[in-house]
Design a protein that fits this description.
two-stranded parallel ribbon; mainly alpha; single chain; 4 helices
Length: 107
Amino acid sequence: MASNVSDCALMYAAIAGPDKIFKYQQPPVCIPTTLRTNLTGYRVGVDFYWAKQADSSIFNAFCDSIEFLRNSGATIIDFRMPDLDYMNTGHLITFISEIGEVSLGKL
């Protein structure tokens, strides 16, 4: 959806807002004018097992991003997401259900 963090923040600000279906009111999006360069004290959990399932070029770019975070002071914590297969199945069922709702004109 975006090629960098700033563009992703702009995209998020553009699509954020109240949800008409679930009546969810989210607070206004505040985009900082500058990004932090020192990430000391931040911890980033990474499931490398899951990430390795991507194409090698995507995984290599991902690893470069993780290394950037590490070099910026963040602590990288390797973990394994429990029950990932079940969550993937749940997401798939949700997506299929939403597609069915849209195609039937209910959303």
